[in-house]
């Protein structure tokens, strides 16, 4: 990367680190999204919703819970779920004891298509990301970013990375 005169030299490392995360994520996600549409018939935003529901188990999630957990879509989640439901991958179910409550659950077809997409997705990510770095680099990055994907307080994570 070229030096950036907007930041003093001692302060540039954090910015270069951020740029690396951002650019790597954008490139890998673009590759993964195109592959998923081609091979699984739905985009990465659908995969995100399906994965949250798969993690939640048979009870599914309320829309508010799904919105909090989604990585890619917060606004417009209702319309996104409408499209996924129209494709037969999820269904809405009433919440017992709550007349207005609705849960979103995976259908059998949704669970099967998610499982197939997950297997391929892992292969695509390994090719697009995994093979570009050494095992030592992967360990260093995983340790450095651990608190971000475990939602731990960064101070706690620095004391106990795993």
Please give a structural write-up.
- The chain is mostly helical.
- The chain has a single domain (12-146), classed as Orthogonal Bundle (Arc Repressor Mutant, subunit A).
- It has 7 helices and 3 strands; from the N terminus they run H-H-E-H-H-E-E-H-H-H.
- It has helices at 12-40, 44-56, 63-69, 77-86, 108-128, 135-150, 154-159; strands spanning 61-62, 90-95, 98-106.
- A 3-stranded antiparallel sheet has the order 1-3-2.
- Strand 2 and strand 3 (98-106) form a beta hairpin.
- Helix 1 crosses helix 5 (108-128) and helix 2 packs across helix 5 (108-128).
- The radius of gyration is 19 Å and the shape is globular.
- The model has no long low-confidence stretch (mean pLDDT 87).
Feature tags:
mainly alpha; Arc Repressor Mutant, subunit A; about 65% helix
Quick gist of this model?
This protein is 63% helix and 10% strand. With 162 residues, it is mainly alpha-helical. Helix 1 crosses helix 5.
Helix-strand blueprint:
Elements: H1 12-40, H2 44-56, E1 61-62, H3 63-69, H4 77-86, E2 90-95, E3 98-106, H5 108-128, H6 135-150, H7 154-159
Antiparallel strand pairs: 1-3, 2-3
Helix pairs in contact: 1-5, 2-5
């Amino acid at each position: 990367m070229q030096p950036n005169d907007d930041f003093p030299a001692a302060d540039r490392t954090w910015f270069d680190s951020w740029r690396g995360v951002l650019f790597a994520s954008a490139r890998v996600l673009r590759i993964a999204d195109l592959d998923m549409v081609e091979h699984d018939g739905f985009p990465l935003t659908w995969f995100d919703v399906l994965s949250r529901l798969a993690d939640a188990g048979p009870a599914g999630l309320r829309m508010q819970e799904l919105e909090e957990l989604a990585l890619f879509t917060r606004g417009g989640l209702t319309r996104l779920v409408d499209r996924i439901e129209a494709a037969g991958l999820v269904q809405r179910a009433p919440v017992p004891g709550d007349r207005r409550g609705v849960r979103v659950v995976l259908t059998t077809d949704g669970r099967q298509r998610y499982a197939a997409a997950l297997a391929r997705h892992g292969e695509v990510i390994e090719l697009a990301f995994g093979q570009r770095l050494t095992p030592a680099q992967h360990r260093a990055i995983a340790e450095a970013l651990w608190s971000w994907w475990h939602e731990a307080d960064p101070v706690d994570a620095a004391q106990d990375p795993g």
